[in-house]
């Protein structure tokens, strides 16, 4: 069941990347966190394959880009997955907020480090490094907003449905 759920979310994430809302306003990090929080340990390898498939499929549709840069993007998403392990059994609004924020910040740092290192857009100096990160802030706003929005929706709906399907027994 957990793999089917992650696969369904991954398919929805692919389609969401195709909707021109705002650059980087996607559920990609949220799906990785969600998978980390809910996928059973014996299915974790499948979840990684699904996450990679989600990225590859959407990139195949949108267009592939520099392989070195793809490694940074894919790596950042895959690192959000074990971050979600820490949410397992501790899914509460404050934790979801904190881990979503951590996932978005981690993605921002890793991908912009990649842009600076391999993108060829900025000089390999401290000034170039700083410029790269400063110019990326508008994209970070969208990444953060998308991650917070989609994490709220994914975790909130899942927990709501879990309460409806399996209501906790009331003490008598």
Descriptive report:
This protein is mainly alpha-helical. It has one domain (2-163): Arp2/3 complex 21 kDa subunit ARPC3, CATH 1.10.1760. 77% of the residues lie in helices and 0% in strands. It has six helices and no strands. Helix 1 runs antiparallel to helix 2 (28-38), helix 2 (28-38) packs parallel to helix 4 and helix 5 (93-118) packs antiparallel against helix 6. The longest helix is centred in the C-terminal third of the chain and has 40 residues, at 126-165. The radius of gyration is 17 Å and the shape is globular. The protein starts with a helix and ends in a 7-residue tail after the last helix.
Strand content bin: under 5%
For the biggest sheet, the summary is: none
What separation lies between the terminal Cα atoms?
A: 32 Å
Given as residue ranges, the uncertain stretches (5+ residues, pLDDT < 50) are none
Shape: globular
CATH class, named: Mainly Alpha
Which architecture per CATH? Orthogonal Bundle
Radius of gyration: 17 Å
Whole-number mean pLDDT: 92
Number of domains: 1
Order of SSEs, N→C? HHHHHH
Number-wise, the strands total: 0
Residue share in helix: over 70%
Count up the helices: 6
SSE class: mainly alpha
The oligomerization state is: single chain
Annotated CATH topology: Arp2/3 complex 21 kDa subunit ARPC3
């Amino acid at each position: 069941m957990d793999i089917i759920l992650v696969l369904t979310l991954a398919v929805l994430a692919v389609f969401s990347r195709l909707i021109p809302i705002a650059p980087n306003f996607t559920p990609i990090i949220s799906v990785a966190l969600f998978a980390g929080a809910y996928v059973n340990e014996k299915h974790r390898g499948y979840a990684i394959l699904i996450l990679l498939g989600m990225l590859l499929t959407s990139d195949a549709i949108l267009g592939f880009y520099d392989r070195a840069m793809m490694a940074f993007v894919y790596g950042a998403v895959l690192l959000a997955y074990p971050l979600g392990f820490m949410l397992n059994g501790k899914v509460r609004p404050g934790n979801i907020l904190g881990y979503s924020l951590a996932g978005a910040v981690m993605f921002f740092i890793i991908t912009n480090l990649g842009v600076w290192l391999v993108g060829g857009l900025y000089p390999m100096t401290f000034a170039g490094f700083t410029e790269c990160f400063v110019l990326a802030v508008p994209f970070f706003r969208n990444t953060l907003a998308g991650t917070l929005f989609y994490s709220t929706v994914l975790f909130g709906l899942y927990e709501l449905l879990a309460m409806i399907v399996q209501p906790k027994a009331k003490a008598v």
